[in-house]
Design brief:
single chain; about 350 residues; alpha+beta; Beta-Lactamase; Arc Repressor Mutant, subunit A; five-stranded antiparallel beta sheet; 11 strands; about 20% strand
Length: about 350
């Protein structure tokens, strides 16, 4: 790391309160970054290290139509072909700009033409926060007027590893932050999702991490089960945490397990809700990270035909017929709900 990179990293990361929860940590970092780099919109996302899926966001200077902007960006990220994709950055340079990867002609990018330019943005910078072993976060900066220059890109590159390390500590520590309640509990509900009773463990967990409208969450999980979709959902709590809900039949009623979950733990929830085998889990994660069939077979030390058998099984469990459909289903079924918890600086 050269002196320019180190200087910016120290100004943003040094002295951050590492006892903060991951939402407050990102808010504080963005406030500091404002004094170092000009931007018109900043998005600080948590990434699931297993799949590199775009998790919860803290947004700095969100426009009025941010929800529409976010939805459009996710459609582009997980259903369209484009440049400066998250999986490409995570596997390669770690940082890049739209103007940079298009040789100064960002209109080459569908995301620029269809989403960013109509809103007045002229360049986008993306930085994957990687601690040397796994990707934990993403910083996305948008600028309205001009582009990010090489000096700014070089300076921001040095922010990735130190902030990833700090963010990882906050996320891992946060899983044990709740004092008193057990990490999971049981709720008894009717087949339509009306709550009948809940165990003391569930009550204590929900008291410590309250959800704005618990009955609606249980009804949504029940409705998903009724139409044959995975009977699981992740729900944001008021303090930036998430609770996961999983429903199973109990006679003519539903037993709903509620548990505390962190954004980087969603891959485990996907495995349980979809009934994936350990090998299928590894195949799914590799596909989500953009690996080819040959690369996956080599990583898992499997014959390519055996790997493809596992992939077809994953397709069946997700009800899809292609890699693109699989990645989209993984994100929109399991990760997109976390964005209901987006926080603004």
């Amino acid at each position: 790391m050269d002196s320019t990179e180190q200087a910016l990293a120290e100004r943003v990361v040094h002295g951050l309160d590492d006892t903060l929860d991951h939402v407050s940590l990102r808010r504080q970092a963005s406030i500091r970054l404002r004094t170092q780099v000009a931007f018109d919109l900043a998005v600080w996302a948590v990434l699931d290290p297993a799949t590199i899926m775009w998790g919860s966001c803290v947004v700095d200077n969100a426009p009025r139509d941010f929800d529409d902007l976010e939805d459009a960006v996710f459609e582009n990220e997980y259903r369209a072909r484009d440049v400066l994709k998250l999986v490409d950055l995570a596997a390669g340079p770690g940082i890049g700009t739209l103007c940079g990867v298009t040789g100064g002609d960002p209109a080459i990018s569908p995301r620029y033409r269809q989403i960013l330019a109509p809103r007045g943005f002229t360049d986008e910078l993306r930085l994957v926060m990687h601690d040397g072993r796994s990707a934990w976060g993403l910083l996305c900066l948008l600028r309205a007027g001009g582009s990010f220059d090489d000096r700014e890109v070089d300076a921001l590159a040095g922010l990735g590893q130190p902030f990833a390390t700090t963010l990882r500590r906050s996320l891992v520590r946060g899983a044990a932050d709740v004092t008193g309640p057990a990490p999971a509990g049981l709720i008894l509900a009717t087949a339509t999702g009306r709550i009948l009773d809940m165990a003391d463990d569930a009550r204590r967990l929900l008291d410590a991490t309250p959800v704005d409208d618990l009955p609606l969450v249980i009804q949504a999980v029940a409705a998903r089960r009724a139409v044959g979709r995975p009977a699981s959902a992740a729900c944001p709590t008021r303090d930036g945490r998430w609770l996961a809900f999983h429903a199973s039949a109990l006679g003519d009623r539903l037993a709903v397990v509620v548990e505390l979950v962190r954004p980087h733990q969603l891959a485990d929830l996907v495995v349980r809700s979809r009934g994936l085998t350990p090998c299928e889990q590894e195949v799914l994660a590799a596909v989500a990270r953009g690996r080819s069939d040959r690369m996956i077979a080599r990583e898992l030390m499997l014959p390519e035909h055996a790997m493809q058998d596992h992939l077809r099984s994953v397709f069946k469990k997700f009800g899809v017929g292609s890699r693109t459909e699989l990645v989209a289903a993984l994100f929109f079924e399991h990760f997109a709900p976390l964005h209901a918890a987006d926080c603004t600086v």
